[in-house]
Amino acid sequence: MIDSHCHLNYKGLAEQQDAVLGRARAAGVAGFLNISTRQSEWQDVVATAERESDVWATVGIHPHEADQHADLGREVLLEATRHPRVIGIGESGLDYYYDKSDRAVQQALFRMHIGVARETGLPLVIHTRDADDDTAAILAEEMGQGAFPALIHCFTASPEFGRKVLDLGLTISISGIVTFKNATDLQEFVKEIPADRLLVETDSPFLAPVPHRGKPCEPGFVRDTAQFVADLRGEDLAGLSASTSANFFRLFAKAAP
């Protein structure tokens, strides 16, 4: 299986990166997408992907960091995508829950990331929280100007939003949040996601799934999330792992064997 979203260079994982990756591989995880959230991380995130053959990288700006990157030039992001180990753009998007950056700046950077995804053909990894309406509106408007590959990572939004992005052709990635006892709406929606549009992730070192709640999350815990999702959907773990891995390589074609 593939952990389609992790932060291997964040505190809690970076200090024991080799051991973390070893434990995940022993649990059956065969690939890792190492996500960046600010420009200062790009070099380290890419360096991990250069060192580890089963790790790939993204480059992008998280909406929390938008104010600090308001003047990031499109060409800077475009140039960073040319590295052979960079297979995606992001994470980028909108976060109105914390509002750590001005919403207009978040939206402008989100649209810039979309433009680079459209130009390069690399998938855009989207973060959205408490911003369903604006995220859906921007995605629909931008898709109307030209299609681009994208996924909603760590999906926790409403089923209505989920159906909208599926109609736009996006993929949805499910994190350990689905295992939480209060995530009943998400658990029901997971059953609706088409088999060819589903990914699983950890978002480690955050959001450890049951039975690891209270611990720093590790990429190896994606197995627990995958098992929970498989049970919800009435599938076996091997089948879900195979289909989500195939979906990953189809979406992130630059990483395909």
UniProtKB/TrEMBL annotation:
One example GO MF annotation: DNA nuclease activity
GO cellular component, one term: cytosol
PROSITE patterns hit by this protein: TATD_1, TATD_2
Transmembrane feature ranges: none
Amino acids binding a divalent metal cation 2: H127, H153
Keywords, in A-Z order: Hydrolase, Metal-binding
Positions with a binding annotation for a divalent metal cation 1: H5, H7, E91, D203
Pfam families for this protein: TatD_DNase (PF01026)
Family annotation (NCBIfam families): YchF/TatD family DNA exonuclease
Family named by the database record: Belongs to the metallo-dependent hydrolases superfamily. TatD-type hydrolase family.
Entry protein name: TatD family deoxyribonuclease
